[in-house]
Design goal:
This protein has 14 helices and 14 strands. By secondary structure, it is of the alpha/beta class.
């Protein structure tokens, strides 16, 4: 067998070379361990994440991260009163946990600041119309408790724009908001169709609407519900139109810090309780009737509610309090986002499974 000129030298050094490889591997492992420790030290700590419920009870309030003002989701009026579907859900959690929907504190946050606020413990619950993604759960150490709204990324243009379809935006600039999923999804969609679409990244929805009104961009891309919200509060003298097509799925939901199974479970089941209430025609008004009923099935349901409350670490009738705070899921949707609201959105997928939608609550038992 023909060998190179260094073959004899390589044979003589074969054993030490194996040892060298092992030592090199050990050094690599030590370096990796040091790097992991350094990265962990730079990340916001999740220490105390398992104490969220205890902290909420001690403070006597649930701190919810919300938007700085998106109609239908979280908006504060001149008197300081908050309204919106995110606000209603926070109040439902406060009612379930603390017995009073008014024991909710709303912390307005920009999109880019919402996850740091959650990770650092500034808020207990993130409700800033936030999209549930794998990268956010795995990379940011947060957990989404469910879907509060099934949405999709769409486009809004000036009412007099000639654009009728997003595909006509090739060569144009589209505004998006910093800290959202929209820029990446827009880029992927454009590349898949061979379109040349530029993005203008801005800090807030208000900035994006102002840029659209000033013709700095041909369209504003965001969740369709957000587009409907900003359209309803458009600057005087300007009107906008939302295009029919959506380019992505945007499941929006409440998020909590990872590492706190008790708080995660509690928030998730408050959401399920609101969905189940609509399935069973339990409304904000009919809760009082349910409490006074002597029907054996109702009594059994109330007893199950007491038992489940103990498992969750909160007082009995938690699910009734959640519904009583702002109504069932359908009532919350219609009041804040539905046809009778300024946004005028159709229920679509956000109907219960037994009424043509995909909202589904596991059994509360």
């Amino acid at each position: 067998m023909k060998t190179g000129s260094n073959s004899s030298t390589e044979g003589a050094l074969s054993l030490p070379r194996d040892v060298a490889r092992r030592r090199s591997a050990l050094r690599a492992l030590r370096i990796a361990a040091v790097l992991c420790a350094a990265i962990a030290a730079l990340e916001p700590s999740t220490a105390g994440a398992s104490d969220t419920l205890a902290g909420v009870k001690a403070r006597g309030t649930v701190r919810c991260g919300v938007s700085e003002g998106i109609a239908g989701f979280s908006q504060r009026d001149a008197a300081g009163h908050w309204s919106g579907i995110d606000v209603d859900f926070c109040r439902a959690v406060a009612a379930a946990v603390l017995g009073d929907p008014d024991k909710a504190t709303f912390v307005p946050l920009r999109a880019a600041a919402r996850f740091p606020a959650l990770r650092l413990g500034t808020i207990d619950l993130l409700l800033r119309n936030t999209t549930w993604t794998l990268s956010r759960e795995a990379g940011l150490s947060v957990l989404f408790a469910g879907v509060l709204l099934y949405d999709g990324e769409g486009f809004m243009v000036a009412a007099d724009s000639p654009v009728q379809s997003p595909k006509q935006l090739s060569g144009a600039t589209v505004c998006v908001v910093k800290g959202t999923t929209h820029a990446d999804q827009l880029g992927d969609w454009a590349r898949s169709l061979g379109l040349d679409v530029q993005t203008l990244v801005l800090e807030t929805d208000s900035d994006a609407v102002a840029a659209l009104a000033a013709d700095r961009c041909a369209a504003f891309s965001s969740d369709e519900s957000t587009l409907a919200a900003v359209r309803s509060t458009a600057p005087a003298g300007r009107s906008f139109r939302i295009l029919d097509e959506q380019i992505s799925k945007q499941p929006l939901g409440p998020a909590v810090r990872a590492g706190d199974d008790q708080w995660f479970t509690l928030v998730r089941w408050v959401l399920f309780a609101l969905i189940a209430a609509e399935e069973n025609d339990l409304t904000q008004r009919s809760v009082a009737t349910l409490r006074s009923s002597t029907d054996p099935i109702v009594l059994r349901t109330r007893q199950a509610d007491r038992d489940l409350g103990r498992l969750l670490g909160i007082a009995p009738e938690w699910s009734l309090r959640a519904v009583e705070a702002g109504g069932n899921y359908g009532e919350m949707f219609e009041r804040n986002l539905g046809r009778g609201s300024p946004l005028g959105l159709e229920r679509g997928l956000n109907r219960p499974w037994n009424r043509g939608g995909i909202l589904y609550a596991p059994p509360l038992q």
